[in-house]
TrEMBL record:
<keyword id="KW-0598">Phosphotransferase system</keyword>
<keyword id="KW-0963">Cytoplasm</keyword>
<feature type="domain" description="PTS EIIA type-4">
    <location>
        <begin position="1"/>
        <end position="124"/>
    </location>
</feature>
<dbReference type="InterPro" id="IPR033887">
    <property type="entry name" value="PTS_IIA_man"/>
</dbReference>
<dbReference type="InterPro" id="IPR004701">
    <property type="entry name" value="PTS_EIIA_man-typ"/>
</dbReference>
<keyword id="KW-0762">Sugar transport</keyword>
<dbReference type="Pfam" id="PF03610">
    <property type="entry name" value="EIIA-man"/>
</dbReference>
<keyword id="KW-0813">Transport</keyword>
<dbReference type="InterPro" id="IPR051471">
    <property type="entry name" value="Bacterial_PTS_sugar_comp"/>
</dbReference>
<protein>
    <submittedName>
        <fullName>PTS sugar transporter subunit IIA</fullName>
    </submittedName>
</protein>
Length: 148
């Protein structure tokens, strides 16, 4: 099974992991690495390296980060450049994290990466857009008022 590390500013990582586990249950080979104020880049790198080592069973690791270009992303990117079986995904949201925890058995880090981007994008919507989809679906199902 792929290892998953969640990282981000403040308590983003631990909060997201707590939320994911509330929805989909406890996760093996998964941990959160927070980046609170006062932690250096060197300390963050050590924490991420330890987390990767503890979660990697030999099938690879995916690091989910909060913000493109932020320190957690940049440190994770350095680690991924050193390990061909590591992938880094940024802009992580709850939709992506929860769905992908259920899909990580038996897939490659690259397949996880590609699927995760679709999951994350699907999770970004609005009430209005969802209502429009439902209206369109009802119209397509009914084809007309008499069902013909």
């Amino acid at each position: 099974m792929l290892g998953v590390i969640i990282t981000g500013h403040g308590r983003f990582a631990s909060g997201l992991l707590q939320g994911v586990e509330q929805v989909v249950g406890e996760q093996l080979q998964c941990c959160a690495v927070d980046f609170p104020e006062g932690v250096s880049h060197g300390e963050l790198r050590c924490l991420l390296e330890q987390a990767c080592a503890s979660c990697d069973s030999g099938e690879g690791v995916v690091i989910l980060s909060d913000l493109l270009g932020g320190s957690p992303f940049r440190v994770a990117a350095v680690l991924a450049k050193q390990h061909p079986d590591y992938q880094v995904i940024t802009g992580t949201n709850m939709q992506l994290a929860a769905e992908m925890m259920l899909e990580r058995e038996g897939i490659t880090p690259q397949r996880f990466r590609d699927m995760a981007l679709k999951c994350g994008q699907r999770g970004i919507t609005s009430l209005w857009h969802e209502e429009q989809k439902q209206c369109t679906q009802k119209q397509n199902d009914g084809v007309g008022s008499d069902g013909i």
